[in-house]
Fold:
Amino acid sequence: LTAPFNLTVGMIGLISCFGIAHALAEYYRLNPAMNGMVASTIFLLVCTPIQKGKIQLDFLGTNGLFIAIIIALCVVEVNQFFEKRGIQLKLPDSIPSMVATFVNTLLPLLVNIVIFYGINLISIAYFGKMFPEVVMNVLTPATSAAGSLPGFLLIVTFGNLLWLFGVNGSSIIFPIVFTLGITETGMNAELCKQGAEMTHLMNL
Structure:
């Protein structure tokens, strides 16, 4: 009975990582599918450690949503750096374009692996925790405050104030509210699945 939850809300971090990288790559006129797959690969590398032959899935869901956003954006920026500076292999014209695209994805992929897996190893060495755990420990107080009634009212008030300066307040606060809402919905769903009382007010 929990399979639909595990493969939807339980995978929202991974799904978001691919979708954000795909959309940003499309905006930069890069290869959207390749960037989405590279970002998803890096996300899995950082967020799903293997312990005793089993993959840990704790950060594939809403717990990994913020780290998914960070990885998706940074991975595409690294790929764009290579693309803008023309850092790629010059292959013969006889090589199919799909093969050439794949080969020229390997170097940015390697750089992304070194950057993010390196950060993960440094995080484990210095803090005794994976990079996603450190990020969540930093963001949890802010998430809890923003998800409370006073915090939510403050965000909405800020959005309304922006309209006074001619700025579309709804478009500014929507990413914040949406991300917090999805995160807290997932947390409530986890509590409900365990038979505990749901304590996160947003999207209760």
About this structure: The CA atoms of residues 65 and 120 lie 17 Å apart. The chain has a mean pLDDT of 83.
